[in-house]
Amino acid sequence: xxxxxxxxxxxxxxxxxxxxxxxxxxxxxxxxxxxxxxxxxxxxxxxxxxxxxxxxxxxxxxxxxxxxxxxxxxxxxxxxxxxxxxxxxxxxxxxxxxxxxxxxxxxxxxxxxxxxxxxxxxxxxxxxxxxxxxxxxxxxxxxxx
Length: 145
Ligand SMILES: CC(C)(COP(=O)(O)OP(=O)(O)OC[C@H]1O[C@@H](n2cnc3c(N)ncnc32)[C@H](O)[C@@H]1OP(=O)(O)O)[C@@H](O)C(=O)NCCC(=O)NCCS
What we know:
The chain is α+β, with helices and mostly antiparallel strands. The chain has five helices and six strands.
């Protein structure tokens, strides 16, 4: 991901259908994005099909020694439900593997059944559940690649 992907990333990130399923549901301005990008140097990836951007992978809690990383993906609303997520994840696992990662984990909110089904289909197993807010839990899911 480049700094000039800001508009595309924020179009997804700030959409309410995305924020409803994120742990941090704040909206961000372009300036905030640019500042965050400069200071955090995030290891994030834009994903494309036929050269058209349709989403991005997020990473966090990178622990090289434990070969562990937290991941997540958000797809642009107009590209959802087209079967793009699964193959993108499989390609991303190759990138993670080639960077030495073996222990992949994520947190999904319990009302996000689309994402939870996707993760189960990819082989993720739920390992923990903690209350997030009224009637919603945060489910930790893990996968060894
Ligand atoms: C979660 C998300 C990345 C999934 O991407 P997608 O493009 O919608 O998913 P796909 O079309 O590739 O489908 C993948 C799987 O999701 C499930 N799925 C997709 N659309 C679904 C729907 N409308 N109803 C139920 N399940 C659905 C299916 O299990 C499907 O697997 P299958 O092909 O074996 O049936 C996307 O919906 C998204 O960005 N959502 C908003 C942000 C978000 O939730 N991010 C993840 C936070 S943990």
